[in-house]
């Protein structure tokens, strides 16, 4: 039997606080950047971690690092643009830990180019990863969370989804689509105690921009001049899991 998340904990001010210690947390894009920082932050809070990304070597090394520090972690390499692989890692997480309490849809990629010259194939690729992948993960985990009588889904979006920046409309559009999926799922699942949070990072000091598809010389979020560190964003993601606002911004 899958375990119940348990009764809510309340602070002295009456605000809801979720217990993270011993919760099973699946984090996508776990091998680098915001995902890696989030893995380490949740592990330090006592969570059991399912690590998901494409790089098997990086994930296995990270899992061994976490285990050496006393954390419970499992590496689950997968291409998250493939819904069948997404389904597999959800199922493998539940087989390994016996439950799955928190899903963090963090993985993402940018495609750059103005509307006039954007490569439609690049747009399709990031749609599969940034939108269809998280949707597949939510569809795989919702029946599990229903049986557990609750759970938490955190979708990592971007502030650019609420802006108009030349050259990154494709990426912003995928995150805007993810926002709408999150907003609607929040309403649809509220009565079943499945909570959905959207996190909005700003530009962050990662290799995100270097990994963008399309015209590389254009600016995309994640340049070395960005103001936030991955660790700062990870702290905000943990705060979102603890206090469960509908939306978590960086300021």
From TrEMBL:
Task: Write down a Pfam family by its short name.
Answer: adh_short
Tell me the InterPro entries matching this sequence. KR_dom (IPR057326), NAD(P)-bd_dom_sf (IPR036291), Sc_DH/Rdtase_CS (IPR020904), SDR_fam (IPR002347)
**What GO terms are given for molecular function?**
oxidoreductase activity
Asked whether the keyword Ribosomal protein is assigned, the reply is no
SUPFAM superfamilies in the cross-refs: NAD(P)-binding Rossmann-fold domains
Give the Ketoreductase domain ranges: 23-218
Q: Would you tell me the Gene Ontology cellular component terms?
A: membrane
Q: Which GO terms describe its biological process?
A: bile acid metabolic process
Among its keywords, does the record have Oxidoreductase? Answer: yes
What are the alphabetically sorted keywords of the record? Oxidoreductase
* Family membership noted in the UniProt record: Belongs to the short-chain dehydrogenases/reductases (SDR) family.
Write the protein's name: SDR family NAD(P)-dependent oxidoreductase
Lineage, uppermost ranks: Bacteria, Bacillati, Bacillota, Bacilli, Bacillales
């Amino acid at each position: 039997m899958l375990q119940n998340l348990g009764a809510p904990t309340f602070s002295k001010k009456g605000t809801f606080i979720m217990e993270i210690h011993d919760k099973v947390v699946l984090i996508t894009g776990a091998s680098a950047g915001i995902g890696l920082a989030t893995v380490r932050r949740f592990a330090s809070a006592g969570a059991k971690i399912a690590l998901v990304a494409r790089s098997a070597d990086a994930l296995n090394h990270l899992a061994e690092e976490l285990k050496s520090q006393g954390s419970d972690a499992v590496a689950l390499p997968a291409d998250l643009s493939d819904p069948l692989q997404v389904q597999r890692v959800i199922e493998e997480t539940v087989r390994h830990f016996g439950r799955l309490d928190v899903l963090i849809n963090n993985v993402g990629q940018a495609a750059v180019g103005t509307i006039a010259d954007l490569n439609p194939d690049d747009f399709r690729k990031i749609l599969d990863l940034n939108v269809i992948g998280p949707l597949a993960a939510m569809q795989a985990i919702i029946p599990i969370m229903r049986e557990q009588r609750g759970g938490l889904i955190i979708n990592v979006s971007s502030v650019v989804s609420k802006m108009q920046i030349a050259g990154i409309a494709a990426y912003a559009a995928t995150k805007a689509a993810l926002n709408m999926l999150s907003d609607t799922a929040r309403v649809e699942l509220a009565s079943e105690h499945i909570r959905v949070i959207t996190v909005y990072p700003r530009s962050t000091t990662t290799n995100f921009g270097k990994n963008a598809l399309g015209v590389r010389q254009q600016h995309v979020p994640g340049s070395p001049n960005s103001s936030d560190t991955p660790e700062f964003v990870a702290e905000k993601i943990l705060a979102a899991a603890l206090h469960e606002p509908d939306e978590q911004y960086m300021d």
